[in-house]
Structure formats: C-alpha cells, structure tokens
Amino acid sequence: MILDRGFLWQFDLLILPMVIICAITALTIKDLVGAAIVTGAYSFLMCLLWTEMLAIDVAFTEAAVGAGVSTILLLGTALHIKRKSKD
Amino acid sequence: MKLLTLLLSLLVGAFLIWSVQDLPDWGDPQSPASTYLSPHYIEKAVEETSVPNIITAVLADYRGFDTMYETVVIFCAGLTVLIILRRTPRKDKKVIKPRPQREGADIILQNTARLLIPPMQIFALYVIAHGHHSPGGGFQGGVILGASFILLALAYDLKSALQRFKEKTMLFYSALGVLIYAGIGVGCLLLGKNFLAYAAWSKLLGITELAAHSHGMLGVEIGVAFTVMAIMFSLYTDLASGGDMDEGL
Amino acid sequence: MDNFIHNIISSYNYWAALILIMIGMYGMIAKNNLLKKVIGMSIFQSAIILFYISISYKTNAAIPIIIHGHGATEHVAIDPTLYVNPLPHVLMLTAIVVGVATLGVALAVLQKIHRVHGTIEEDEIMESIKE
C-alpha cells in the first residue's frame, strides 16, 4: 500500500510531525524573536519536503527566500519593536 | 473569540478534508493535472527553446508575462516599504532615540563574513548563469546576491554596508532590472514580432532562432536578478533600522 | 473505518497540508499580537504551496531537467510520464517570491503602526483609536 510507491515514507514520517509542531510553536511562543527563529526552522523543513518531492527549483527558492531573507526580516522587525507579546 | 475561530477553522478543515477524498491518487501519472498542458511542455521544451531545465523554459519563455509582472510586483513592494517607513533625521528635532552601540569588534563574525561573502557572490553569479542547465535561475541567484550584502550589514555596521551599496544605487539597480526585462520585450516588438517573442532577436544578432530563445531567456533572468538583489537589500535596510538607516540589527 | 484509515494513509501529504492551513488560518484570525498574525499568514502560504507541489508528484519519476537535452538537432522522444509535472512548480516559484514581497510590506505597515500607536497588541490599538 505505502511501500510499493517508491517513496520514502520514513522520511515523511520524520519530517511532517516536526513541521506541524514548528507551526504550532511559532504561534504560541511569547517571545517574538523566538517566534521568528522557529518560522525560519519551519521554512527549512518545508524546503526538505519539497526536495523529497523532486521540486528542486521550488526548494532552492524557499531555502534562499524563506529560510534566509524572510527570517531576517521578521527578526529585524521583532528586535526593533518590543520583544515580548502578551499573547 | 478564540473558541469561535477554532470552530471556524475546524469547519473549514472538515470541508477541505471532505473534498480531498475526491482527488486522484497521489502520484498518479494520468491525473488530470498532468495530462492537458504539461506533456506539451515536457516534450517540446528542448525542441523549441534548447534549454534542458524545463522549469526555466516555462518560466522565462512560455509564461514570460507572469515573470515580468512578478518582477514589477517586487519592485513596487520595495518602493512601498521605502515610502511607508523612510524618514530623514531632521537636524533640529531629535526624532531618533539613541540605540545601544555595539561594544568591541566580533572577530569571529567579521572574519567569517569576510571569507564567506566573495564565494557567495560568485556562487550567485554561477546560479544565474547556469539556470538553463541546473536548478537555479534569476530569482535564486538574485536572492543569494542580496543575502551576501545582508551578511555584510550583519557582521559589520549597517553604515559601512550602506557605504558600499548606497540607497541610490539600490533604486537604480532595481529599476534597471525591470527596464532590461521590458526592454527585451519591446525590442522584440520593434523587430517585427510579438511582445516577448524572442525569435525576433535572431535577425539582429545573427544567430539561429533556437539560440535566440536561449539568449533572450538569459538576458531576462539577468534583469530579474538585478531587481531581486536590490530589493532584498533595500527591504532589509528599511525594516531593520525602522527607516532611519542609522543602526541595524 | 478501514476504508477511512486506508484513505488517510494513502494521502497523508494532503492531510498535513490541510492541518497547516487550519493552523495558519487560526493564527491569522485569533491571535492578538499583530506580528503573530503575519507569521500565521506566512505559514498559510507555505501550506498552500505544499498542497500544490503534492499534486504535481508522479511515482518513480525524475526531476524536470532533461539530461541529454542540449543538442537540439537530435530528436530524442521524451516520455512525459517519466518526468515530474513542472507546471505547478513554475506557479509556486512566483508565489514564493511574491509572498516575501507581501511579507515585507506587512512588516513595514506593522512598524508604522508601532510608531504611531506605541504598541502592536490589537486590543490596545483599538482602545487607543477610540480616544
């Protein structure tokens, strides 16, 4: 059923729960700098998923843009405004 | 409020899950998404454009309009951030509150950045130039180039990075990128064919039509790379300093 | 029930994308802090791109770069079922880059709100508007 698909379901089983945990953590954590960094980790794990699905250009762009520039922009804003959020 | 939103998300999720049951099997080669247009792209990409990377061929040749407007969107976003946030310090009023200055020089960070930035830029130029044969292209190379300047601003001061890559240069490069892209398109129009039909350049440059497709795509990717590089650095300098451009992260 | 379990296991990628869409939507609507809303938007975008890329996958296929392809005079017959569908990849490439541009503008508006009101919590902003 799964095993005859030629696909690495073990890899998926490792990465997909981590992606979901990263997403929930990024929204729950109270320190805004921590939320920005966890969003960077989320982007990087998504890049791994897309490499596994053979979407290499998309994974390259997400690694450069998501895990690189987007994390820096969020971090820069979070350090400029106050770091603690009430919620 | 939160309970209501949770119910709403679960409701939307339930609808989506109900509709996912009707999707074709995952990984099916005969699914409707893969049967109408993409076989034409896969089969004819090398014949009509002589570019082995199908994604670059579709992005820059078959769907060139989308890429042009995407470049314009990035340009407009950079201008918007500049308009919203930028303020020049007035000499009489103290608008800027003083930020704590850095103490000492971070030796490891600065030396690592100094070792890392030139190979990063060479790799970015490699990615742009080899977009036809390997994963890459204009966007990825442009973002890596912009990231190399951001690394310079992070390791050293924002002011010293801005001395190397001034604000006027940033705006000039971003506009130059859009101009190159639209200029290649208008050039095709002036030479007799449709907008962004690269085969029109073959008479002027003296190459075959197939090679004109390939070279037109390279020119267009260079334009995209210029715009993306300038806008990524411009976004960083505006957002990290809150518009004052005096001290970054 | 057995059919349901079989359904989940054979399309778990779509389920993961849907769970992420739900998380992103919850974050965009329910959170009080405006930066958390922006992070929710970014999660939402990534989840939709995951969904599209899952549609384009073919079993036992190769990456969409044709290896022997540069000498265009030889007409080698290319079988489309051997390569992954490239069309969603192209669309999602545009989506990612436009997403980062949107993120930049959202953060700029956020900083402007902070400059004017002094806070980025939604309830405090609503109080400060009423005065």
Number of helices, counting only DSSP H or I runs of 4 residues or more of chain A = 3
Structural category of chain A is mainly alpha
Summarize model confidence as the mean pLDDT of chain C: 86
Order of H and E elements of chain C: HHHHH
Largest sheet of chain C: none
Biggest chain pair interface: B-C, 63 and 55 residues
- Termini separation of chain C comes to 57 Å
Low-confidence runs of at least 5 consecutive residues of chain C = none
Helix content of chain A: over 70%
Overall 3D form of chain C: elongated
User: DSSP strand (E) fraction of chain C?
Assistant: under 5%
Q: Could you tell me how far the N terminus lies from the C terminus of chain A, measured between alpha carbons in angstroms? A: 44 Å
Helix content range of chain C: 55-70%
Keywords:
heterotrimer; A: 87 residues; mainly alpha; B: mainly alpha; 10 helices
Quick summary:
The complex is a heterotrimer of chains A (87), B (249) and C (131). Helices cover 76% and strands 0% of the residues of chain A.
Description:
The complex is a heterotrimer of chains A (87), B (249) and C (131). Helices cover 76% and strands 0% of the residues of chain A. With 87 residues, chain A is mainly alpha-helical. The radius of gyration of chain A is 15 Å and the shape is flat. Chain B has helices spanning 2-20, 38-49, 54-62, 64-85, 107-129, 138-155, 158-164, 167-190, 201-205, 209-241. Chain C is built from five helices and no strands. Chain C is elongated, with a radius of gyration of 22 Å. In chain C, 47% of the residues are buried. The mean pLDDT of chain C is 86. The chains are: A mainly alpha (87), B mainly alpha (249), C mainly alpha (131). Chains in contact: A-B, A-C, B-C.
